[in-house]
Amino acid sequence: MEDNIKDSLLQRFEKSLNTTLSGQTFTSWNETDRIEFKKSLHTASETINKSYLSTICGFANNKGGVIIFGIDSISKELLGIKEEFEDLDNRYASTTLGEGLDGTFDFLLFTAWFGEKLIGFLWVRASSSKPVILRTSVDTQNGTVVKIGEIYFRYPAQTKRILASDLRSIINDEISSRMQKLITQINKITQIGVDNSAVLDKITGEISSVEKNNVKLVLSKEILDELNL
Disulfide engineering: 37 pairs with which of 71, 108, 138, 171, CB 3.0-4.6 Å? Predict the structure, then answer.
C-alpha cells in the first residue's frame, strides 16, 4: 500500500513540473486544503520538528493531505532540501507524531530527487477516528503558539484552529459512524444467532461468548499479528 501511495504521488508531482531555460524548476501545483509547501525541512534529534504538528493535525482532521518540503510557497520553485535527508523515512516522524498528537492516522515520509533538487514528502491520511488533538504546546516557525488540547483543521491553503461548526460536524460524523458500526455488528449477531456468536477483543486477544458458563479463549499476540485485524 505504501509503495502505491508513494509512486502515485511522485508520478503526479513530476507531471506538474516545468523547467525553464535558466534551469529553474517550478510546479504547477498550488497550496490547497490538501497541499502545503515548505521551503526547507527542519529536524531535531533525528526527528522532524514539532512545528509541523498543527498542519499534520489539520490534514488528519479533514481529508488528509501532503506537506512538500523544498518548495517556495510563493513562486512554487523547487529549492530542494539538504542532501543529508535523502534517506528520510517514517522513523523520522513517528516520535514527533506519537508524542505530539492524540489520535490514530496513517502517514508516509519519504524523499525523491528531481534533477539536482531533493524534495521531501510527508503524506497524511485522514483519521478514521476524529478529532485528532494536540498533546503538546509548540512554537511554530511563524511565531505563533499552538497549545496542548487544541484541535486544528485544514482549510483552503491554510491550517488554523478548527471552527465550531466544523468541530460539531466532525463529532456528529463520528457518532454516526460508531452507531452504524454498532448496528452492523448487531445485525451480524442476529444473523448468526446469539448462541453461535462470540466477541473478540482485538487488543487482548480474548474471545468471550454470551453463554452462561462464559467460556473464554485467548489468542496469543503472534496469532493476532498474523490475523492482521
Answer: 71
From 88, 114, 125, 141, select the one nearest 29 (Cα to Cα): 114
The CA-based angle 59-107-139, given to 5 degrees, is: 55
Joined together, the cell numbers standing for residue 66 give 501532503
* pLDDT tens digits for range 54-104: 999 999 999 999 999 999 999 999 999 999 999 889 999 999 999 999 999
* Residue pair 81/119 in contact by the 8 Å Cβ criterion: yes
Task: Name the H helices within the chain.
Answer: 2-15, 53-61, 91-100, 164-192, 221-227
The residues, any chain, with a CB within 8 Å of residue 228's CB and separated by 6 or more, are none
Length of the chain: 229
**Residue in the structure block whose three cell numbers are 466532525:** 170
Closest CA to 160 of 75, 54, 71: 54
What own/partner pairs with CB < 8 Å and gap ≥ 24 does 164-170 have?
167/131, 170/61, 170/130, 170/131
Three cell numbers, residue 151: 484541535
Locus of grid cell 458500526: 181
Query: What is the value of pTM for the model shown?
Result: 0.81
Secondary structure (H, E, C), 120-148: EEEEECCCCCCCCEECCCEECCCCCEECC
Tens digits of per-residue pLDDT, 1-12?
678 999 999 999
- Residue 9 burial (CB count, 10 A): 17
Element (H, E) at 111: strand 107-114
Within 8 A by CB and 6+ apart from 189, the residues are 197
